[in-house]
Amino acid sequence: THLHDFIRGLPKAELHLHIEGSLEPEMMFALAQKNGVRLPYPSVDAIRAAYHFTDLQSFLDLYYAGAAVLQTEQDFYDLTSAYIRRAIADHVRHAEIFFDPQTHTERGIPVATVFSGIARALRDARQQGFSGSMILCFLRHLSEDDAMATLEAALPLRDDYADVWVGVGLDSSEAGNPPEKFRHVFAIAAAMGLHLVAHAGEEGPAAYIRSALDVLQVERIDHGVRAEDDTALMEHLAKQRTPLTVCPLSNLKLCVVPDLRHHNLARMLRAGLCITINSDDPSYFGGYMNDNFIAAAEALQLSCAELGQIARNSFEAAFVSPEQKRIWY
Ligand code: HPA
Ligand code: ZN
């Protein structure tokens, strides 16, 4: 249809994508066999059939179990390359990719292996006109000391990966793990010149969005759909054009919203917030970028002008130079 063609043709940037969440069941199964990792599923179909979630935690349990099949530098390269192919097909020009080193170092995989595989795929993709960077996420269910040790382990890689490693983020179980738990490690990352983002207001309250901004000093909020509970915060986000990286199909699959027709992204966009659309964990939530755009557009009757605005917002919100932004939009 016209709408689908319009969405497909829009150049976009993806700013909320967990690379471990792009692991398709086929690759999970193949890597499990190659690496001798036991999965609790007998087949690819059984993996896919297990993807029914009731909340964030019910998803995270499967997501961390699935990530255990990733072992070698080539595994991370192949995972990232597969995502990039899919992104290019959706006319994604630029992606800022989240990765969770603690999920891997905990299993004895060196952090350098993770960096190397992801970065090599991003650098190779430049030949196709694709631009990509990496955002190291701390797992918020673990301690700040653990996050600090992760940042310290990555410190010696800073120069080798200066062209791709642009920031740090915060993900995993939100409720009970407020942003301020990580104030020291975010302050150090800021002093290193890294960009700062955090998941906030997905399942957690609007107060977590405020503390991510006020205490951690993040530049973007990942999800942020609970911002509407706080009128003054909404005005602040609109005035500052603080980007929210919203993930419609993720919110639907994790029961953050009961129905996409109840999603507040259109209202927040119309209130002047810098709303972007992203896929979060596309292999688990049943859709890449264009699937998310199409689902939101159809459920919320977004106009072509609004869809164009959302795509422009993604470049506005990207961690790239003003010169690069002028080339893109
Ligand atoms: N929220 C929190 N942690 C995550 C997510 C998410 O949507 N995806 C992967 N880790
Ligand atoms: Zn996320």
UniProtKB/TrEMBL annotation:
<dbReference type="GO" id="GO:0005829">
    <property type="term" value="C:cytosol"/>
</dbReference>
<dbReference type="GO" id="GO:0009117">
    <property type="term" value="P:nucleotide metabolic process"/>
</dbReference>
<keyword id="KW-0862">Zinc</keyword>
<dbReference type="InterPro" id="IPR032466">
    <property type="entry name" value="Metal_Hydrolase"/>
</dbReference>
<feature type="binding site">
    <location>
        <position position="281"/>
    </location>
    <ligand>
        <name>substrate</name>
    </ligand>
</feature>
<dbReference type="InterPro" id="IPR028892">
    <property type="entry name" value="ADE"/>
</dbReference>
<dbReference type="GO" id="GO:0006146">
    <property type="term" value="P:adenine catabolic process"/>
</dbReference>
<feature type="site" description="Important for catalytic activity">
    <location>
        <position position="223"/>
    </location>
</feature>
<comment type="similarity">
    <text>Belongs to the metallo-dependent hydrolases superfamily. Adenosine and AMP deaminases family. Adenine deaminase type 2 subfamily.</text>
</comment>
<feature type="binding site">
    <location>
        <position position="16"/>
    </location>
    <ligand>
        <name>Zn(2+)</name>
    </ligand>
</feature>
<dbReference type="InterPro" id="IPR006330">
    <property type="entry name" value="Ado/ade_deaminase"/>
</dbReference>
<dbReference type="GO" id="GO:0043103">
    <property type="term" value="P:hypoxanthine salvage"/>
</dbReference>
<keyword id="KW-0479">Metal-binding</keyword>
<feature type="binding site">
    <location>
        <position position="280"/>
    </location>
    <ligand>
        <name>Zn(2+)</name>
    </ligand>
</feature>
<dbReference type="GO" id="GO:0000034">
    <property type="term" value="F:adenine deaminase activity"/>
</dbReference>
<dbReference type="GO" id="GO:0008270">
    <property type="term" value="F:zinc ion binding"/>
</dbReference>
<comment type="function">
    <text>Catalyzes the hydrolytic deamination of adenine to hypoxanthine. Plays an important role in the purine salvage pathway and in nitrogen catabolism.</text>
</comment>
<keyword id="KW-0378">Hydrolase</keyword>
<feature type="domain" description="Adenosine deaminase">
    <location>
        <begin position="11"/>
        <end position="329"/>
    </location>
</feature>
<dbReference type="Pfam" id="PF00962">
    <property type="entry name" value="A_deaminase"/>
</dbReference>
<keyword id="KW-0546">Nucleotide metabolism</keyword>
<feature type="binding site">
    <location>
        <position position="199"/>
    </location>
    <ligand>
        <name>Zn(2+)</name>
    </ligand>
</feature>
<feature type="binding site">
    <location>
        <position position="18"/>
    </location>
    <ligand>
        <name>Zn(2+)</name>
    </ligand>
</feature>
<dbReference type="InterPro" id="IPR001365">
    <property type="entry name" value="A_deaminase_dom"/>
</dbReference>
<feature type="active site" description="Proton donor">
    <location>
        <position position="202"/>
    </location>
</feature>
<protein>
    <recommendedName>
        <fullName>Adenine deaminase</fullName>
        <ecNumber>3.5.4.2</ecNumber>
    </recommendedName>
</protein>
